[in-house]
Amino acid sequence: MRFNSQKAFPKPVLRPYSDDYISSDLQFIPEPYYDENTDEITFQFQFVTSAHELLERIERHEAAFVVIVSCRDTFLREPLYSHDSSFSESFPAGWFRGKVTIEAYIIAKKLLTDYKSTDINAEFGPGPFIYESGEVMALDEHKEFTFEREVMKPIQTILDLVMEDELQNNEWNIRFEQDNLQIAVSPNVKQLIDTARNNRKNVAIFLNSIYFSAIMEAVNVIKYSNEYEDFKWCRVVRQKCANEGISIDNEFSYNVTQKLLKQPFGLLKTHV
């Protein structure tokens, strides 16, 4: 059952754009991560709700958080159940292609004959309310992601480091006219980076300097021009922002870049 803001229920169901509950709400946050080593996609799911009566039923295993992960192109439809508001699940990357939809619910696990909440709209009466096993007690809007392996990899994989003999000393430029962004550097800088970037400490420095600058410039180009829309690097940046709820148009470019690089200052703290 997909989210439909116009759907009416015969009993209270906590959901967006509804006044079944006066002040309570439910927020569902899915975050996908791709692991190149295992070729798996791991989802971290988080439910946040202020409806204490629902949480009490979940703690007593009378209700549960439910997530349904589905992919039309691969015919995947996987239901997941949990009594923890935060949980994760891993899938082979090959199970996903194209658009993936994630639905989020709280359902009754058994017949409930005595459910009450002081936050339920008085139009439903004083209760108690009866929920059959499997009936929906709460739901959030479904979330959609588009999966391509390039999109799931770290954003810095859209960068290629190339040497240009014409550049002098420590000069470097960015080239946008290829599928990957090209960071063109002088011969001495290319030698320096090739020697240094196998060390995690040095990678942390690069992420906060030349890589950060290149990604931020790419974000700026996307914000103010549509000239490079057909190149892979542009599609990857746009889709990563869409998957992670980042607004290119409404956020400063440096903030977008920090989120795309997963707050790279944290690596400095760890390795430097």
Strand order of the largest sheet: 4-3-6-9
Order of helices and strands: EEHEEEEEEEHEEEHHHHHH
Inertia-based shape: elongated
Low-pLDDT parts are none
- The DSSP helix count reads 8
Question: What is the helical fraction, as a range of percent?
Answer: 25-40%
The secondary-structure class comes to alpha+beta
Counting copies of identical and different chains, the oligomeric state is: single chain
Query: What characterizes the major β-sheet?
Result: 4 strands, antiparallel
N-to-C span: 49 Å
How many runs of DSSP E, i.e. beta strands? 12
The radius of gyration over CA amounts to 24 Å
Descriptive account of the structure:
There is one protein chain. With about 270 residues, this protein is α+β, with helices and mostly antiparallel strands. It is about 25% helix and about 30% strand. It has 8 helices and 12 strands. A 4-stranded antiparallel β-sheet has the order 4-3-6-9. It has a 3-stranded antiparallel β-sheet with strand order 1-2-5, with no helix packed on it. Strands 10-12-11 form a 3-stranded mixed β-sheet. Helix 4 (about 200-205) runs antiparallel to helix 8 (about 265-270) and helix 5 (about 210-225) crosses helix 7 (about 255-260). The longest helix has 15 residues, at about 210-225. It is elongated. The protein starts with about 25 loop residues before the first strand and ends with a helix. The model has no long low-confidence stretch (mean pLDDT about 90).
Layout: helices, strands, pairs:
Elements (H helix, E strand, L loop, with lengths): L25 E10 L4 E10 L2 H8 L3 E9 L4 E7 L3 E7 L5 E11 L3 E4 L13 E3 L4 E12 L1 H4 L6 E5 L8 E4 L5 E5 L1 H10 L3 H8 L2 H15 L7 H12 L9 H8 L4 H7 L1
Helix pairs in contact: 4-8, 5-7
